[in-house]
Amino acid sequence: MTRLDRALAALATLPSAQLSERWAEVGSGSAPNVPAPLLRRLLAQRLQEKRHGALPLLVVRELERISLAGGSMPEPSRKTVTLTPGTRLIREWNGRTIAVEVRDDGFVWEDRTYRSLSEIAVLVTGAHWSGPRFFGLTRRG
Asked: Which one, of 124, 123, 118, 114, lies nearest residue 137 by Cα?
């Protein structure tokens, strides 16, 4: 059992007054006025942060944003791109330019028609790819 494991286990047995003292010991100033079970959790988080590092600022900001939104995560906005016939999609892959033309009946690449952009992306890369993502029409979600 590591020193951190022992410190975390000890929190379960500490009364409120000692939890407040422990809070001050870990360099967090005066303890917040919260119920003992919550203070135990906060202390456990602080001890783990001291040992392993805190959450990245980007994650903290996202959690704050979610909490301000009432705790529910908003659905990610998915922008749909409408491809009209005649549109040319161009992507460079390993020094090779891939040019695809959008048609009513599919997508033309190297004088052959395909039903989807994903079929083309797989042929180009040799791996499973989302065709719209490969051609920069969507972002990684």
From this structure: 118
